[in-house]
Specification:
The protein has helices at residues 2-24, 42-57, 80-88, 99-106, 114-132, 143-156, 185-195, 211-226, 230-238, 276-284, and strands spanning 33-37, 63-70, 91-96, 136-138, 166-168, 175-177. With 294 residues, it is α/β, with parallel strands linked by helices. Strand 1 (33-37), helix 2 (42-57) and strand 2 form a beta-alpha-beta unit. The protein binds iron/sulfur cluster (SF4). Catalyzes the ATP-dependent 2-thiolation of cytidine in position 32 of tRNA, to form 2-thiocytidine (s(2)C32). The sulfur atoms are provided by the cysteine/cysteine desulfurase (IscS) system.
Length: 294
């Protein structure tokens, strides 16, 4: 009984966060067909479950089609997802495409295969979306994934770039949405455990998770442990970007700044980092004469 209450609370929180993300980024419109990518991991099971629940009470009418790509990895339990999806009563497609052999033949033994594998998978997903007439593609990435990607790009690719909640595909044909963008991995993991989803492990291919991603995960876990709420804070920061306090000349006209200009263009004023106490002290210094030495 206790566990079922906890599960209901988790479900409510996940649905509320997902609903908010969908509304904030206008992820789903009336008449949309959304292809929901199901890998067999905790995130995609949760995504499908939450989207199905939200569709029941959404103010707009949209269609969901679940999709799993069977990449022909050795040991992949091909019967699990069709059985699960049929029982759920959702429209679904299972796509058979042996990307595993392609990856194995192209990447030398011992090297990380994930980037080629994901590119191939993306191609199959986009093709399937076209075939089933889906205009949106929903992926199960959550808030922690987005923050980890930010740090990966920052520390290993020297770019201030994360993983957006909504994205136009390169060919412009589809919009990729990440409805779990406001959900924490912790909530999803607890929910998936409670729901006892038939999880299919992600490492059947034998590939090691990207080493840099592992390091970022460990770094954020450590920060969150020592200073709880850091992942949430970093995600919030992604929604409050201040171009005048970065250094990208394409985002802010630094060349055009002149004395006598409009201070309002400097979003956040001339304080670089202003913890509250300092912000409170500064006004009290107004009018105190300066001791200037020649
Ligand atoms: S872990 Fe294996 S299946 Fe998953 S992306 Fe990497 S190579 Fe592909």
């Amino acid at each position: 009984m206790e566990q079922s209450n906890t599960l209901q609370r988790l479900r409510r929180r996940l649905e509320s966060n997902t609903g908010k993300a969908i509304a904030d980024y206008r992820m789903i419109d009336d008449g949309d067909t959304v292809l929901v990518c199901i890998s067999g991991g905790k995130d995609s099971y949760t995504l499908l479950s939450v989207l199905m629940a939200l569709r029941e009470r959404a103010p707009v009418d949209f269609r969901l089609i679940a999709m799993n790509l069977d990449q022909k990895q050795p040991g992949f339990p091909a019967e699990v997802l069709p059985g699960y999806l049929a029982k759920l009563g959702v429209d679904y497609r299972i796509v058979d495409q042996d990307t595993y052999s392609i990856v194995r033949s192209k990447i030398p033994e011992g090297k990380t295969t994930c980037s080629l594998c994901s590119r191939l998978r993306r191609g199959v997903i986009y093709r399937t979306a076209k075939e089933v007439g889906a205009n949106k593609i929903a992926l199960g990435h959550h808030r922690d994934d987005i923050v980890h990607t930010l740090f990966l790009n920052l520390l290993f690719a020297a770019r201030l770039k994360a993983m957006p909640p909504k994205l136009l595909t390169d060919d412009g044909a589809h919009v990729v949405i990440r409805p779990l963008a406001y959900c924490s991995e912790k909530d999803i993991a607890r929910f998936a455990r409670g729901m006892a989803y038939p999880i299919i492990p992600c490492n059947l291919c034998g590939s090691q998770d990207n080493l840099q991603r592992q390091k970022i995960r460990a770094m954020m876990a450590d920060w969150d442990h020592r200073y709880p709420g850091r992942t949430e804070a970093v995600f919030s920061a992604l929604q409050k970007v201040v171009p005048s306090h970065l250094a990208d000349q394409t985002l802010f006209d630094f060349q055009g700044l002149r004395p006598g200009g409009d201070p309002a263009t400097m979003d956040g004023g001339d304080l670089v980092f202003d913890p509250a106490p300092l912000g409170e002290i500064l006004p009290s210094l107004q009018g105190v004469p300066l001791a200037v030495r020649a």
